[in-house]
Amino acid sequence: MSDRTSDRDPGGMSRPPASRRPGTDPAGLAAAFALGAAGAAAAAVAGGGWAVAVPAGAGIAALVWLVSTGTSRLTGSRPGPGPGHRPAAPAGRPRDPVPQDALAWLYRATVAADRLTGHAAEVPALSEAAAYVQGAVERLHDQGQAVAVIDAEAGGPDSRALRRDQRRLAEQAAALPPGPLRSAKEASARATAERAEARSRLEELRELLLATLESTTLRMEAAADRGSVLVSLQAAGEDAAGRLDRDPLGDELEAVRAGLDKLEEITHGLLDGGGPP
User: Fold this and answer.
1) CA dihedral for 91, 9, 209, 167, sign (positive or negative)
2) Where is this region: Disordered (predicted)?
């Protein structure tokens, strides 16, 4: 059996179907026209005259149309979940886009899991391993989101640029006579040094996250490769289940589990505001 490729995109999302353009709902336009006309007539009957009634009716129609458009954007343009759909982020914070360097490893992990699932369809002895790796991929996507959070939080200059600023401010402060200006420069230098230290911790966390993401994905690919060997044996007429060496495959799955635990440990450290474990 040839290796399967994933029909999911690198972020694990299925492509949503195209939706109808919001704001072009005929019913919304008809309602706006009808209510606008009614408002104009009411204003005329009340004695305002058509000079007042027509602008009033137009205002009502515009308001109704805007409400209809907004409702269409909120309801009519959001398709339901399709195959491969990953749950949306909690309402408190939308998911940040995963950067390309992390996304590449998430994509490879997804492909490896799908390969192993395909192998299990031909060699049932691989079913348990395939199910485990599929669940591991879901956890990997969740933990990979931490890289996006770091990038979102660490905007602005990197730690090296901040340290250059700190040295510049310290030198400027040292060249000044004692007084308010020198004190302000010294305070700025201290604040910049603290910011550089915090940014440096985030950079170290990011590097550690990517390295662990990489090693975990490579272990998943190794497990899929072992499945490919068994499929080849079965295609050659041999007893694949009888030839299954569970120790190497178990070692790969154990390494996957250890990598996921490490990623969770790193992300917990990120939430606690600490440095790399």
Assistant:
1) negative
2) 1-27, 72-97, 172-195
